[in-house]
Batch of 3 targets.
Target 1
Amino acid sequence: MTMERIANYIDGRLEAPRSGCYIDNIEPATGQVYSLIADSDAADLEQAMTAANRAFPEWSALSAEERARLLLGIADRIEAETEPLARAESIDTGKPISLARQVDIPRAAANMRFFAHAITQFASEAHSMGPLAINYTLRQPLGVVACISPWNLPLYLLTWKIAPALASGNCVIAKPSELTPMTAYLLARICIDAGLPRGVLNILHGTGPRIGRALVAHPKIKAIAFTGGTRTGAEIARIAAPQFKKLSLELGGKNPTLVFADCDWDATLATTVRAAFFNQGQACLCGSRIFVERPIYERFRSDFLARAEALEPGDPLDEKTQQGALVSELHLHKVLSAIELGQQEGGTILAGGHRVTVPGRCAEGYFVKPTVFEDLAFDCRTNQEEIFGPVATLIPFESEAQVLEYANSTEYGLAATVWSRDVQRCHRVAQQLEAGVVWINTWMVRDLRTPFGGMKHSGVGREGGVEALRFFTEAKNVCIKL
Ligand code: NDP
């Protein structure tokens, strides 16, 4: 059987890498190679850059309505292809197919649709100086921009970046994660089918250190929108800052969940379990540090454990599966060593804590049982460093001041969730939490108009809504003497 070769998308065509080199693409649920990925390098980048530069004048001169029409065509095709895309995403990432079908693919279509509509409503400011002069602001596209996305929500996060970049008139060179390239490849085919003009979007596959780094360093790249790990974000900033490129960095998280004694029990419990183990804990928004007010701690622990233990990893393509595989063997070992560290730090494992063998075709897959720790100090490494896997810790707290100290103690500041029926407390705590996103009595509810991003080491800048359109445009003030 010949394996599918995942090609680049350059100048409106699917292109083999110039070098002829490919990387193995492994299905995490089986540990088997199932396709080959273009291992792109500087030669492919030059070809994409030439195409993108050539396409820019015409694309940026199109009316917002015309660009929106093309993006809506892509959104419609993503929606029509939900089933094959969900299956591809599930195979490539190890996530349950039901999750890909309910979350990843619909959200990819929604991203395209949202920014198609947003650009037709995008307005800029005018500042009057009375009889003296009037200023107005032009917001013009930047040129060719880079969009670099991670493996946990591949099509969801790729479209979250390329949609506003394209809508505002830029041409894009995108690099998806080498671990999960399949849906980006399928998106390229959709773009060809939808009639997206040649060179407007280019997708290069390959490794971060090779093609990712070259893309970031390319002098003609005007802006970089990156989602990924904090260490990679720092490396990108180090290269891009001296070239004065615009940077949007959406980085890691170690998000706290604050459970007060007056919470709505059933809603809190169900959502807190989901927030901890969604996508096998591989989401930047997962709530992995769960702080529970002392009077309800024992009862919460026992109910939480019962639900966590019921989450049995299984074949991601099985409709009933709620926990799939971790994305790679390397990541599996990273998560297992984090569990080992938790034990060395004095943590007690209440649930999970080990690899799981799923019988049948998934016997070699990368599965870990949802793991729950207690007896770990809020400031130990397990509670400070991002694990990005199905590992949660339970920590009791005595007072509002104490839980705020615990919650804000990490170097991260992406998201936080508060569970309480006391409205005043919710507002008070939300104001003091060091996080770019705070959910009260809910989790993962996303309005695409709102600013999204993190504080501290969780990122620089905000994406979403007008923030994204502003990021991908240059503001120019025009002052006219009256
Ligand atoms: P990485 O930082 O390893 O990779 C992210 C992307 O950057 C991948 O496409 C990767 O390519 C590429 N890359 C790696 N090195 C370089 C480099 N030197 N120059 C340019 N590009 C590079 O993150 P992961 O893919 O491991 O994703 C997990 C991380 O993403 C977690 O820390 C998570 O918290 C964060 N994340 C943040 C979100 C947010 O919105 N704040 C949302 C989702 C995830 P390749 O994989 O091919 O090496």
Target 2
Amino acid sequence: MELPFSFLGLENLPCEPTHTNRAGMEFEHLPHPAPTPADKRDEALKDPGFGKLFTDHMVVIDYDEAKGGWHKATLGPREAISLDPAAAVLHYAQEIFEGMKAYKQGDDTLALFRPEQNARRFNESARRMAMPDLPEELFLESIRQLVAADRDWVPGDPDGSLYLRPFMFASEAFLGVRPAKQYKYILIASPVGPYFKGGAKPVKIWVSRNYTRAAPGGTGAAKTGGNYAASLVPQAEGIENGCDQVVFLDAVEKKWVEELGGMNLFFVFDDGTVITPPLTGTILPGITRNSLIELLREEGLQVREEPYSIDQWRADATTGKLLETMACGTAAVVTPVGTVLGPDGEFTIGSGGTGQMTNKIRERLVGIQKGSVEDTHGWTMKL
Ligand code: PLP
Ligand code: COI
């Protein structure tokens, strides 16, 4: 029998609804009138895909400058939100988001991977978009609250996890161009399998020549919706040309490899060196990127953050100096790049398959996230 939310979830939650928590703000718990029946949920979890299936609950926190800032937090049923048609986000795209995952570990406990880094980057994005900071502890508490309510939605299979999508947008109804005074922070969750249909199989990458993603001084380092909106046409161009993802070059010289639409890149060479493009402000400072730099160094490789050109990429792949290229991110984990399709035709990395280091690093990273490899860095946070 399905118990109503007020019976089912609350005893598992880390705090009583009427008490303040580590974030110092009460979360009001709104009962769910009709949570998904367990058999339906378990059936859906068998093949969740990516970003198509959603859990029963969501967190909403309101911000109003006139009310002293962040003031009302609720954990309630996931439902449509109503928005004034003049809400600033709909006109000037004042919006940011994060992407992170809760993993089921061997012993059935749940863990997050470096969530404090997401909290920090969220605020860095907020500052670039002239939005208010969300206290990091409040961000983390919202995650704890939602995962506690929806913990049965975390897929248990090796490729599965609960993708968490915190986001914030300007909700003030006002058409003048200035930072809004009212915002909403919302957290939703989506059980996911692999981001790419082929799982960890090598992907084919389209080099965008007609479009760039971010210019110096722009918003490339912020996780804001507009960057992704701008990537859709080149991404569609890539798909029309039989590719899985698009790689962007720098906006000034159209020469330096920056990143994919939703992933950072690493190039592994035959002399034990690795290059990843530097954080110059036009690419997203990936948390997976930062973790891989450490893991690759622990493998004895010399990792350098330095510019790498598209012409060099092709030349090194052709001579065989370049052994592997990997794309990484929360959604894509570590994915091998097999083939690159540029304006001068196609080139293949290594044999076009999954390289040894890509495999090894992916297994180490996933092992830490899933609790089967010792977390010597203290990267996981148990829930
Ligand atoms: N680059 C872009 C544009 C992204 O959207 C993402 C995904 O979040 C990444 C890189 C990888 O970042 P992370 O490893 O923090 O998920
Ligand atoms: C993530 O990896 O979390 C992202 O936000 C990338 C997006 C393409 C799903």
Target 3
Amino acid sequence: MKVLGIESSCDETACAIVEDGKTILSNVVATQIPFHQIYKGVVPEIASRKHVEWILPVVRQALEEAKLTFDDIDAIAATNRPGLMGSLMVGFTFAKTLAWSLNKPFLAVNHMLGHLYAAHLVNDIQYPYLGLLVSGGHSIICKVNNFDDLEILGTTVDDSVGEAFDKVSKFYGLGYPGGVIIDNLAKQGDARAATFPVPKLDNKEHRYDVSFSGLKTAVIHQCDMFWNEGYEHSKENMCAAFQETACKTLTSRLFRAVEDTGLTTVVAGGGVAANSRLRSLLAERTDLNCIFPPLKLCGDNGAMIAGVAYHFLKRGDRDGWDSVTCARIPQFKRGLANFANRNKN
Ligand code: KG4
Ligand code: ZN
């Protein structure tokens, strides 16, 4: 079955066609970064307008690259949440209208389920496993029982990890989006240059939770306080020390979850899963089977949406023409998150 998946939750207009949840026939991602760069962050109004402008050409290109026509497509899917409301609405309404006019099934897909599925597009992964979902909006450690059955063990209590990368980069004028810029600068720096404070969320209630707001504040406003003697005050050193603390904050909680659950497979997803230090820290744990999506599938894309949709489709799920978008994930609390009820706001 061929599914056409549309993703427009933030600043990428994306469309992909995926066969049987596995074979990527085309994967077009039109990034709006240059339009937001001058504002040092995503401007929601610009994002929605660019999606309106680009959605049709991007979908056409996805069909052309796959050498297919609409007749060859079995179902249409789109991200329904979470994300920027205006941006979500463009891709979602476009997809729904397309499905209605072509008389094809329509599927709404949670963006975070998409990020988790990205690694499945190129790997055969058995459930259950531990998921590490790290993006610009979320930091989630979860037990994954099935493609839409997640048990949230921990989340951030304040900023997401991607947000911390972006804000540190913005403050120091390094550029937008900050993650990949800091990652690259950190390669030329020494992480021992500063010892930033690590969050002390050690009580039972926060056993798997992370926090990045304190780290962000320390790096931005109190950098000197945490600097170690003998190290040059360079942006490379600052990036390396910040990145080290951010990544170890994530892995310390993840490894706790590994010990407590006994699960040894870890699947990462989301933009921050592209981070080279996060990858190397997990690779050091040779007792674990850590699976990352290829770099191209870490960021937002339509293939991950089409991939998840295939499994809904196979199960017989369909979404109605009255289904809507939502900026947040309401189930985004510790405990069971039944993403199957994906249209219940
Ligand atoms: O998943 P994504 O593309 O969009 C959201 O769903 O939010 O994630 C974007 C986030 C941004 O915060 C970006 O700075 C971060 O992912 N990111 C990285 C790297 N590449 C992208 N963070 C750290 N290291 C990277 N190499
Ligand atoms: Zn994303």
